[in-house]
Write a structure and sequence with these properties.
Layout (H helix, E strand, L loop, with lengths): L1 E8 L5 E4 L7 E4 L2 H21 L9 H20 L12 E6 L7
């Protein structure tokens, strides 16, 4: 299974990651590599929990990803207004796709 993720670094280099297709599925890491490893675990756990509840994995849509990007940009803007993100840094974010094993059916 493949899902798009949005990575946003902070000033210290830590990277937060959200999965637009999976509400509430987020992670963070000290590096991009660590954040991606953590988000793969979070995705697997999210899917496993939903499978145990009898739910099928959601199908990602362009609208989901676009909404996730819009939310990430809003968060960056809020951080700028709070003095937590420099204005001269631009809108630093990255969208990429990660692959995870689907959970085993119970």
């Amino acid at each position: 299974m493949r899902y798009s993720v949005i990575l946003v670094p902070d000033e210290t280099g830590r990277v937060s990651v959200t999965v637009p297709a999976l509400p509430g599925c987020v992670s963070v890491g000290a590096t991009t590599e660590e954040a991606l490893a953590h988000v793969r675990e979070a995705i697997h756990g999210w899917l496993e929990t939903e499978a145990l509840a009898g739910n099928r994995p959601p199908v990602e849509t362009p609208d989901m990803v676009g909404h996730g990007v819009a939310l990430a940009l809003e968060t960056i803007e809020e951080m700028r207004e709070a003095g937590e993100y420099p204005f001269d840094r631009g809108y630093e974010l990255e969208v990429m796709t990660v692959e995870v094993r689907p959970p085993v059916a119970a």
